[in-house]
Amino acid sequence: MSSNNRIIVFFQINLRLILVSGKTKEFLFSPNDSASDIAKHVYDNWPMDWEEEQVSSPNILRLIYQGRFLHGNVTLGALKLPFGKTTVMHLVARETLPEPNSQGQRNREKTGESNCCVIL
């Protein structure tokens, strides 16, 4: 191979997004893509079979990974997602996100309290 030949490798992360309805779709993203970038891309390329779940704006699309909402500026690279494997995330419509590590959550964890109710 001569020194003029270069091999360029693009690392991409395969995301399988799951809607509340259970419908799924796979997308490829760069490690530099943020949660906001992903929401906009999905909104702009909304799958035809997701038509019933179409939202009015990409700004209300939220990603959930390992049980936690991803804030808009978090990149896939920061999550250290593996290349060449499929990572599953949930995609939901939600206006606002809970504050990360909110005091109320920490207090509930310490005391063992929960916000669930029992209906008899």
UniProtKB/TrEMBL annotation:
Signal peptide as annotated in the record: none
Annotated localization: Cell membrane
Family annotation (CDD domains): Ubl_UBL3 (cd17048)
The entry's keywords: Cell membrane, Lipoprotein, Membrane, Methylation, Palmitate, Prenylation
Keyword Cytoplasm on entry: no
Classification via InterPro entries: MUB, Ubiquitin-like_dom, Ubiquitin-like_domsf, UBL3-like, UBL3-like_ubiquitin_dom, UBL3_Ubl_met
Lipid bilayer topology: Lipid-anchor
GO CC annotation, single: plasma membrane
Residue ranges occupied by any Ubiquitin-like domain in the UniProt entry: 13-91
Coiled coil: none
Location, primary (coarse class): membrane
PANTHER family from the UniProt entry: UBIQUITIN-LIKE PROTEIN 3, UBIQUITIN-LIKE PROTEIN 3 HCG-1 PROTEIN
Protein name per Swiss-Prot or TrEMBL: Ubiquitin-like protein
Taxonomic lineage from the root: Eukaryota, Metazoa, Chordata, Craniata, Vertebrata
